[in-house]
Design a protein that fits this description.
This protein folds into 2 domains: 5-87, no CATH class; 95-208, 3-Layer(aba) Sandwich (Rossmann fold), CATH 3.40.50. It is α/β, with parallel strands linked by helices and 210 residues long. A 4-stranded parallel β-sheet has the order 6-5-7-8, sandwiched between helices. Helix 5 packs parallel to helix 9. The protein contains 9 helices and 8 strands. The structure holds zinc ion. This is DUF2325 domain-containing protein. It comes from Candidatus Viridilinea halotolerans.
Amino acid sequence: MSTAISIARLLTEAGFVSPEAQTQARTLMEAHGLTNPRKQQMAPEKMSRVNALFAEYLRLTCGDPDCDGLAKRQWPGKTAVQVSPSACIICAGSSQQRAARLLAAALDKAGLHHLLILGGTPPQHTTLRELLEGTPLSIRAVNGSGRAHSANEAAQQLAWADMMVIWASTPLHHKISVPYTSQAPSAMRVITVPRRGVESLCRGVIEALP
Ligand SMILES: [Zn+2]
């Protein structure tokens, strides 16, 4: 076992910065026998057990209303604690990640789980996929400056999708979009987001929802 470290410091490093958050964390640790009111120090190895305890009982968010709202909907039974942004369970300190989580939640509420994106670049698509990990939303994306897809390929993608977004303002060649836009089923929701950037795309889709 390595040298014991101040519990206050370990908690600060875990994002429990305010006195309120420290108290909430300590109270929970004490209730589960991981420390007691007299102790100021703890072996750092114990932090994995402490973090597991926090994950079970606490809803850690940065205090942003969107993060609070999403976390509350997902974990209504847990106790809310405001932590530093990097420890936020929704955004981890990234507004881009927050927007992606909001998008997944908004589409889930509308019963939409397969989003087809026309336009953008492969790195942007990878970013969005990573941000959506662990959510019910899957995306398929068509490189806006790649090779044109055949009508057949486009039909297969369209059959998979619940919704299509045309990501204008990114490279999106006409020959790429036409096989999709020309045969999108009339019942499919198709929207255009004329903004750049992954976060703007997410926000744009959310705003276009009824
Ligand atoms: Zn957050």
